[in-house]
Request: fold
Amino acid sequence: MSGDVSATRPVSSLAGSATSVPDRARGVNRLAVAGIGSSILIMIGASVLRNSWMIPTLVMPASGPPWDVQSVHVPVGAVTVSLWLAAVLGTGGVVAGLVGVQRGARPPAWTLLIAGMLTVAVLTVLPPAGSTDALDYASYGRIAVLGHSPYVVPPYYLHLADNAFSRSVPIAWEHSVSVYGPIATVEQFLAARLGGTSAARIVFWLKLWDAAAFGIVAAVADRLLRSDPARRLRAHLLWTINPLLLWDVIAAGHLDVLAAAAGLLGLLALGEQPRAARPHWLRVLAAGALVGIAADIKINYILFSLGLAWALRRSPAAVAAAAAGALALLVPSYAFFGPPAVRSLVRHRNATSADSFYKILLAPHWWPHVAAIATVMVVATAVLLTLCRLPAGAPVRPAIRPALTLSVAWLFLWPYQFPWYDVMICCLLVLYPASRLDWLVLARLMAGTIFTIPGNAFFRPGHLLNDIHYVVVHLIAPVVIFAAAICLITFSVSGQWKLRQPSRPPAAAAPGTGGPRQ
Reply:
């Protein structure tokens, strides 16, 4: 694909005017920079001031990271409105950037990579904001350090046994044992050993590992797509510099990004495989082990294992080798923690998140059966996507498409979802060419992120924002997520995945005629 096209070379537009591609893209590029930049600055500001608007209070260490500003107080209402605005601006900025790439804009991809990594570094050394899940992880790690199983002992125990830590235990989940996999528990244990009795320091170590995983996915995408400038830029817009992901998994410190990185590396471990070729058994074993690690962090990533098995289905020996690699990790780790860890796999079997569209579609007497209904919907959608096919992409990496198919079907149709779960889709989507699926994923991600804002913070009774937040959570977000699911099925049946191309760059001149370099 060609690089930058000179602004003096005309391009025929849909309206017949002669406007250069960079000229047409310059306006949306400015919107992209403004939207993404302002969104990130708001999110950094909210994280710096976290203790002034979010509970529980996070007792900061005397020195070293994380750092915050405690001398400034901001009302939770102002933070909430600012973060809602940041989510909208960030989504608009990413959309504008993608449109600019469509129109031929080719800014240096390394600028997006560096900007994204700098933002990750800043958010990593700030307290967790927007969610208390990272404090739950820290609580489970502290429980493990004290010699107990977080699958048996809930965080409430820390109020009785560990006064130095107890102020930072979130109330919402203090009676809930861990629902995460054994490798996640080991990670939390190691962070707690490094962080001691400081919840803030433990969370810093957890966020540091999340940041490393996020950076690995960004670097891998940059490397794999380096020969295609448009797809490389798109990957960084959807992942590296996407404010929604930066807020949901880096600022908030969600461990889903660890599973996403391990799962993606597992699917890529097969290497590039022509249709009739069989990967080396060592590659298959490594792929199975890596997707096994992903599932051992969050069991949802077992879908990547199924995608891997589908890609290897023509070779029973390869499927067996991949399964052996995965089970070699899953079986001993779950055996070590025993039946309580296994029971955690089905703990949210019939749960629905507050923004689930099933709540507005099903009568109350059907809610106890929502898991069974959703299972039928997910399977039917997965079959539909398999038969009708998602947008073509990554043909020499056969495990990517089935893993993406299963992830999309599950995330779009399952009733218990949060926006940080969508890293499961995004880490795979960056390896695909642009399509309407991009817009559906961004719409879901924005709706889910706004639904979770401001996180664990409360307005005084009668506050206007209480009513607005209720409408967002119980009406707007479910409708957007349901519309995305309907569009997914519609595009699958019709095959209308391709985006309209507003203009095409002029063909590269022959060598020696002054055209752009390849």
Remarks:
- Residues 1-19, 503-518 have pLDDT under 50 and may be disordered.
- The CA atoms of residues 163 and 314 lie 57 Å apart.
- The longest helix spans residues 464-494.
